[in-house]
Amino acid sequence: MRRWGGAHENLPLMPERILFLTGHLAHARLDKVLRGGNFGFDWKIEDIGVKVAALMTEAIIARRLPRPVAADRVVVPGRCRADLARLSADFGVAFERGPDELKDLPAYFGKRGRGLDLTRYDMRIFAEIVDASDMTVDAIIARATEMRAAGADVIDIGCLPDKPFSHLEDAVGVLKARGFAVSVDSANADELRRGVKAGSDFLLSLTEHTLDIAADSNVSPVLIPATHGDMASLLRAAEMAERSGIRAILDPVIDPIHFGFMASLSRYAELRARIPDAEILMGTGNLTELTDADSSGVTAMLLGICSELRIRNLLVVQVSPHTRRTIQEHDAARRMMFAAREDRSIPKDYGGALLQLHDRMKADTAFQSTCEQERVDFPSGSTWIAFTDAVSHAAMAGQYQFEQTFLVPGSLLQDEHRSPLRILERLVGRALVCEPVRT
Question: What is the pTM of this model?
Answer without folding.
Answer: 0.76
